[in-house]
Amino acid sequence: MAGNTEGREVLPDKLEDARQAGGKNSNRCTLILTEGDSSKALAMSGLTSDMRDFYGVYPITGKVLNVRKASPAQINRNKFIQDLTKILKLELQKEYTDTSSLRYGRVILMTDQDDDGTHMSGLLINLFSFLWPSLLKLPSSFLIDFVTPLIKVTHETKEAETFSSLREFKEWKEKDKAHATEWSVKFYKGLGSSTVEEGMLYFNQIDIHVREFVWEGDADGEAINIAFGGDPEKRKEWIRNNNQVDSLPGPRGNKITYKEFVNNELVLFTIANLQRSIPTMFDGLKSGERKIIFTAFKIDLTELTPLDVFSSLVSQHSAYHHSRKCISNVIIRMAQDFIGRNNVNLFEPSGQFGTSASGGKDAANEGYLHTKLKPVAWVLFPKADDDLLEYNLEYGRKLEPTRYFPIIPLVLLNGAKGIGSGFSTFIPQYNPRDVIANIRRGIKCEEMEPMVPWYRDFEGEIKKTGEGVYTSYGKCHDVNDNTVQISVLPIGLWTDDYKKILHALKANNGDPLIEDVSIHNDGSSMVFNVILSKKHKKEARREGYLKKFKLEKNITTTNMHLLMGGLIKKYHSPEEIIKDFYPHRLELYVKRKGKTALALTSEIVKLQRKIQFLKDVNRGVILVVGRLESEIIKELKSGDEKFLELSLTMDQCIELEKELAEKNQEVGHLNSSSAESMYEEDLKKFESMLSESEDLNSRKRGMMAMSCQRTVKPKKTQ
DNA sequence: AGGACGGCTAC
DNA sequence: GTTTGTAGCCGTCCT
């Protein structure tokens, strides 16, 4: 026991150690690693006092280090690995032939039943397989998966049933369709939604709630290495080979090989990670962004609303199951409009949403921010499309569309950055007018013009400087013999970061380029006055200020990935994206035309019948006066009793004939309009909206310049 | 050539 | 509740 207490002194506070851990019965002890503190609480309330002899619990907060891609130094300083090593008494480099030297004989992974939970399990498997592979190869499984139910159904009289997969639940529902509705269904979203009683039930029958991870051979190690190792090419290949996996994993047996886990389950996290990190080609939206837009339209977000309120509404309306703080951050990014961010922001930023001082990291807390949809949102996402889209469902409830079809590829206006698994993406921002022009060329089967990245209000230059490489340049000019003024920074270089760069140029020991820097705010942006010796200035001028002062930044088009029909597609130019995009948009107009024509036809038929009825009444063909309503209805073949709500005069008839003429005209207009001309109408609306905001912007800038002059002038006279 | 870092949605 | 550290990829910058 002496060794036991000695060890305990340095054990982490958050550990609930098994009483027998580290003693002579340590081999019979199990350490439960939980995903988050709330799962730890569930485990603690589920374990009986007796079980606490042999079960310890330790919560993991956040993601576990991918040791396979980490440096030894990073592994050494990692808090979780330090804790785990102490708790289990692990020794690095040791080849284990049994677990007798450890404080616990096995480890249970208790992660949420969702994609990120699977990822957590994967990272833990990866950790052991990389640092202590011998443990995973022991004949008796060292790692155990804790499997909690995903769905529970209860009945007034019958015994409750649980399912650990959606597929099992669906099969159960199909088997007895008639009575399925008598049951109430509970979906567990993470371990946090299990009750204390359910926790006790899990541990009371722990054997049916676990499955063993099994090491069969080298193929297991290879699978883990592909999923977590440093070769993204292998990972891409793995995703391509396994993305057909049923997104509803089947029933879980009591054993699974590491290879099966990686290829059938971990790959689902990979796909989810791509969905949330890489936008679709069609709407340029990541899944979270799509849920935000959907909610804003659904609740008609036309009044300024606090961000914390709005983000809660997103959770409710779109079944967003992650942290609300995350949504708020995404909304903030979508609303930002400083130079270098969105060319066409859909949300209005009201409050401190961040500035180009730090790339928007200086945004205020969500509680102090308000937002609403900008009018342009309805122009880019026409309401008339709503009936033509496909929608995601959750447990039968209609959620956001699987993808929107804005009238132009939004991803080219606002760009995209994202890091998924196997793939990342970077798409620059382009001028909406260039994009519209190329769509028009595409429709007319003309060659498209190559586009150069464009950022709203950016006053520097952007030029093509290589294959798939564009360079954005800042701006500077001479003020006097020893001063250069820098007034514009290249795209993506934030003023706070540039300060550091200038200070480094000044601190450069030996012969620094810069003697001094002073920073001024000219009203709308920062200006740097750089003071340097005449000699250095001459030299810098010869070599080029932009290069010398590090005012060049590349924008590449070599990593443009977008999702299309669940698959990742690599694009090599923005024009290629437009080529993929507009045929789908045109198809939507064809559908819209068909639907509108159908609706108009039925309205016209109704009008014609009403008119005929009124004519008949007025000519005396149908007698109305002195008869029962039911008799008249019987006489009418159409049987439409609503006719009697009409005023039975010829005036009414003339009114309806006018209406009919209008509808016929609409049909005429619709028949003469093509998908192309309907598209053109929508594009024109967007263009006029662009002009409006450009006018507004230039007026704003004019006012800023004036107020700036007023504040500067008195200083000059002093 | 090799390591560190920025960008972004998640735990 | 907020802050910090982590995943994941690729291009850039620094050593």
TrEMBL record:
Keyword GTP-binding part of the UniProt annotation: no
Catalytic activity: ATP-dependent breakage, passage and rejoining of double-stranded DNA
Catalytic residues identified in the record: Y368
SUPFAM superfamilies: Type II DNA topoisomerase
Domain Topo IIA-type catalytic: 278-683
Pfam families (alphabetical): DNA_topoisoIV, Toprim, TOPRIM_C
Name of the protein in question: DNA topoisomerase (ATP-hydrolyzing)
Name of the top EC class for this enzyme: isomerase
Gene3D superfamilies from the UniProt entry: 3.30.1360.40, 3.30.1490.30, 3.40.50.670, Topoisomerase II, domain 5, Topoisomerase, domain 3
Cofactor dependency: Mg(2+)
Gene Ontology molecular function: ATP binding; DNA binding; DNA topoisomerase type II (double strand cut, ATP-hydrolyzing) activity; metal ion binding
